[in-house]
Amino acid sequence: MNITSKIVALSSAVAFALQIALALLMLCCFSPEEVGTFSVISQIGFFWTTLALAQSPLRLLANHSASVFDDARQAWFSSLQRFVWLLPVAALAVWWSGLSFANSLLWALLLSLCQLTWMLAQSMRLRMASVWAQACVRVLPPLMALLVVVLAFSMECSGSALLAAALIGYAVGAAWLFPTLLISGQIPQDTSSQSIASTSEDDRSATLRMAHTLTDALLATAIVVVWQRMYGAQETGWMAAPLRVMGFVPAVVHMAWAQVLLAQPQHERTNPLFVGVAGFTCVALLGTGCALALEFGWLGQQWQGVWPYLLPLVIWQGSSCVAAAFSHLPFENHKARKYSWACMAAAGVQGSVLLLPTLHIHTTTAQMHLLIYCVVSAFALIALTFYIYRLGR
């Protein structure tokens, strides 16, 4: 593994460790209702971001032209156009969640726009020669958000401080892309990335990428919106807080492993299965840490409702780590289209289980609902992993 890959992997791990610290701080300093409201608004913003990007960061890594500035600028303007078109969809999600409409929609809009720009900045910097810029664009935003939350807690601010902290962090990350919008021409790129065009390719049409993005975004957003709608803000907080902590691990696996392999091919590689198992182990350790914190009363009585959610979330997010570890293979073998169809099929299975209670097909408790959903999701993700492996072969 070259020095660039090591720095990117380390900075991604540090960035997500900071976000885990932020999530744990939320558990200690804010009520389940405040965390639940923040989770719903931020997830709607993330849904908006994901759909507007339509996997542009991944395409920016896999398909290279002579100028990374031109690629990044084109990706940002096309994403911004989709961002505007999707405003009614985001407004509908805010309305359906039952939160204050105007205030929540404004927060979601600001969070989404800054997060969209930051995600493109990360992919752009990954193709550039400055490894320390790659580290800073990942570490500084969560560090800034953590500092704002600490300051807000010391000043006894309300739950809206969580939204303000997230917005400031995303804005710091977005600042790394804005200079490229004013610059054209070629810049120094990492020399190892020049061979990427012959080894990887995103051959999907814009329609297929949009459809894939839509299914992923709907599934990620639906779980918190459904929980808010069916079980209330407190249950949403109990479910969303540990999910936010554990969900960082598959994100680290994807960003520090799969994306680095696409942007900068390596001569020697670790078996993806080892990476996936390591990610699963990290998720299990985080779940154990949450259980110990609850057992020793470090989080207070108001968070005891988290207990039934821990094991299902470990199973689900651990399986996500395994799938993420293999996600680069279809692009390296020019089979991204088949990969997208398989991912959408898995998401369809997960979404069906998630939405069954909303259709009054059966009634159950929130905890049993999540257990069923997580077990089905784990089976779907493992099946997806086997399919990805077959594509790679």
Overview in brief:
The protein is mainly alpha-helical. 78% of the residues lie in helices and 0% in strands.
Structure description:
The chain has 393 residues and is mainly alpha-helical. It has one domain (3-392). It is built from 15 helices and no strands. It is globular. The chain starts with a helix and ends with a helix. The model is unreliable at 185-198 (pLDDT under 50).
Keywords:
single chain; 393 residues; mainly alpha; 15 helices; globular
Helices and strands in order:
Layout: H1 3-29, H2 32-53, H3 56-62, H4 68-85, H5 87-97, H6 101-126, H7 131-154, H8 160-174, H9 196-199, H10 206-263, H11 272-295, H12 307-325, H13 329-332, H14 336-355, H15 366-392
Helix pairs in contact: 1-7, 1-10, 2-4, 2-5, 2-6, 2-8, 2-10, 3-6, 4-6, 5-6, 6-7, 6-8, 7-8, 10-11, 10-12, 10-14, 11-12, 12-15, 14-15
Shape: globular
Counting structural domains, the number is 1
Please give the share of residues in helix: over 70%
Q: What structural class do helix, strand and pairing data support?
A: mainly alpha
Low-confidence stretches: 185-198
What's the total count of β strands?
0
* Cα-based radius of gyration, to the nearest Å: 20 Å
Distance between the termini: 23 Å
Total helix count?
Answer: 15
| Range of strand content | under 5%
* Overall residue-averaged pLDDT value: 82
Give the biggest beta sheet.
none
Order of helices and strands: HHHHHHHHHHHHHHH
